[in-house]
Task: structure prediction
Amino acid sequence: MKFKFLEHPADIKFQAFGKTLEEAFINSALALKQTIYEKKIKEKKAKKIKLEAKDKEALLYDFLEQFLFLLDAEDFLFNKIKKLKINQNALEAEISGDKASDYDFNNNVKAITYSNMFVKKQKDKYTTQVVLDV
Amino acid sequence: MKIKKISDYEWEISDSKIPINLFVNEKILEQIKKDDTLKQATNMAKLPGVLKVAVMPDAHQGYGACIGGVAGFDLEKGVISPGMVGFDINCGVRLLSTNISKKEFLSKRKEITHDIKRTIPSGLGRGGERYSKEIIKEVLEKGSEWALENKLATKKDLEKTEENGRMENADSKDVSDQAIARGLPQLGTLGAGNHFIDIQEVEEIYDEKTAKKFKLEKNKIAIMIHCGSRGLGHQVASDYIREIEEKYSAKKFPDRELGYAPIDSEIGKKYFSAMKCAVNFAFCNRQIIMHKIREILKKNFPNKKIDLVYDLAHNIAKIEEHKIPNKKKILVVRKGATRAFENQPVIIPGSMSTPSFVLVGTKNAEKISLASSAHGAGRAHSRTWAHKTLDEKQIKKILDKKDILLEGSPKATIEESEMSYKDIEEVIDVTEKAGISKKVAKLKPLAVVIG
Result:
C-alpha cells in the first residue's frame, strides 16, 4: 500500500508508507495529488524542487506545500515524482506534470498542516501522517 | 478535564488556568467530547497572556485551534498565533438583500444561476483575470477601497463591511512574493471546498424590526457569498507558521500548529500586518464577486433594488475593547466564529440544501462570549466518509425534492451535501438560547453554485 486515508471530522488525513524515506515522501505527494485530482495528468512539463528545512516534518510540509504553490501560481499539477533525493534535511526532486487548467477540477486543498503530523521509522518501514486543510 | 454545567446552554471547563466557556447543549457537548475539540480549546487556553476562551455551538475539531474557538489575549503579555487564525484568513460571508420576489427569480433561475457559475471563476486560472503584482499589493493595503476606486463597489457597500472593508496598518511588504504570486490569478474567484454562492428566499422573519433594518423582506430573494483570501491567505499563514517556528522552539508549543510569538515582537507585528493584508484581499475578493453578481441581477431585473446587508469575517484576529473584567483593548482571535456585538448582523450559512440564518448580536454576547457567535452548521462527517457512503444521484434526489438548483462538480456535490453537516436548526437554537445572538430571519436555498 502506498498510502491510506483516515477518518477526520472536517479535514483530510492520510498516512503514506515507504521502504525508504524517499519512497514515503513520494507516496505522501501522491496522496496529496489524489486528493486534488483522482485522474491521470499528462507528463508534458518537468520541474525541479530544491528545499531545506529544520527537520523531517518541516521538510515534508515544505515539499507538499510546493505542489499547492505550483498549482496556484504556475497553473501546474504534477503526475509523477521522477526523482527524489533526501540528504539530512535537504531535498531535491524532479517532477513532471501538465497545465492544471486544461483539466476539469478545482483544487479544494487549502493548506498542509502540522496537525498530528509525523515522519516515523519503524523497523524497515517509514510512515508519514499528514492532515490537509480542505 | 472537569466540565461544570452553568445552564442547559453553557458549560465551563473548570480545571483550566483561565475560563473556557462552552456554549453548547448536552447533545453537542457529548459530540465534541468524542473528537479533539475540547483538547484543542484547552491548548488555546495554555498560550501566554490568554484571558478567556469561548467555544461556539457549532464547534468541531480543527487543526491547532478548534473550529468555533474564540480567544482573547492581553496586548502586553499576550501572543499571536498564525496557526490559530488558520489558513483561510478572513474566510467569511457576505449577504445581499433584494426586492426581487421568489416567483420573479424562479422564472429566470436556470439562466441566472448558470450565468453566475460562468462569470465567477472557481479558480485555477480558468476565466479569471490575472492582476499585476502592483495591483495585488494595492489591494492588500486598501481592501475594498481599491474596489471603490475602480468602480467595483459603492460607498454604501464599504459601510456595510466589517472594518469598512479595510484593516488599517496592513503593509504589503510583510507578504512574501510567493503569497502574492498565488494571489495574482485569484482575485475575484470563489475557490472550491465549502465555498459557495447561494441564492435564497427569505422564508421566515422572526424579528420584524431588525429584519427591516437589515432590509430583509419575506419571500424576496437574498444572495449569500462564502469565500476567503484564497491561496494568498493560505501562503501568508504558512510563511509565518514556518518563520515563527524557526525563531521560537517548537517544543514549548502545546501543538506544533499553534506556534506563537509575542504580539509586540517584531515577527508578531509582521504577521499581524500580513494577516491584515490577507483580510483586505478577502474583503475585496468578496466585493468583486458581489459586484459581478449585482450586474447579472441588474441585467435581468433592471428596476430592482440590490443592497449589501453585511460582510463579515469568520477567521480573523483583531483588536477590540472588552470587559474582562475591566474594559480594555485586547486581541481577539475568532477561528470559525462570527463577531456579535449588540445590534451587529450575524450571518450563519447552512449546508447546500438546508436553511441559512441571519441573527443579531446581543449585549449578553459582549458579556459572556467575547462578543462572538456561531458561524455555520459545522461538519459532522469527513469527506472520506462522504465518498464512501454517498453517491451523487442520492444527493440530487434530495435537491430535486427540495426544489434547489445546483451548479457544481460531482466531487463537491458529494463532499458538501447536508448529510455531512450537523443540524443547523439545532446550532441556531442553542445560539439563541445561550443568548449570544437573536434570530432575525431564515433563508431557504433556491440555487447553489459551488466549485
In short: Helices of chain A lie at 21-36, 56-74. Chain A has a mean pLDDT of 94. Chain A touches chain B at residues 5-12, 54, 57-58, 61-62, 65, 68-69, 71-73, 75, 100-101, 104-108, 110-117, 131, 133-134 (CB under 8 Å). Strands of chain A lie at 3-6, 12-18, 45-52, 76-87, 90-99, 111-122, 125-133.
